[in-house]
Design goal:
Elements lengths: L3 H27 L5 H27 L4 H11 L11 H24 L3 H8 L1 H31 L1
Helix pairs in contact: 1-2, 1-3, 1-4, 2-6, 4-6, 5-6
Amino acid sequence: MVDFGKVLVSLLARAYIAEFSEEEVISETLTQISDARFWDSLFGILKDSEIHRQMIEEIVNLLQFDIKDFKEYSVRSASVKSYEFSDEFIPRMLDEILKLEVWSANYYSQLLKFDLSTISREYGEDVADKIKGTLQKLVTWEKKHAEAVRKLQDEF
């Protein structure tokens, strides 16, 4: 029999990795920018990304999976891209951040389509409702972040 909790946790590992990857891209970008508007927006997204990873960890805990194993699995699966510095560095990095934001919004939206009825049966309706609420919040945040990055692109 398929363990849908385990399937969801595995899918969440990809989102966890994406959040981490985005943090790395933003951190690298911030080393090259001094403009306060960029710092404010990008640092806000960086902070939110940390919160998103904690929200994912909360779901993993709700599904009664060991968070240490989850993190180890995520780290083993992660690959962080490196970038060359050039005159086009900032626009390229903003494009990369936007891609990650759009991907994350789409990914969390797809996770919302996950059949939570099996989760509800296995872990309780309260757990399923918390997971759904968390995923909805993540979609909303990612869409706001994408819009913020688009605004930065327009200013650059």
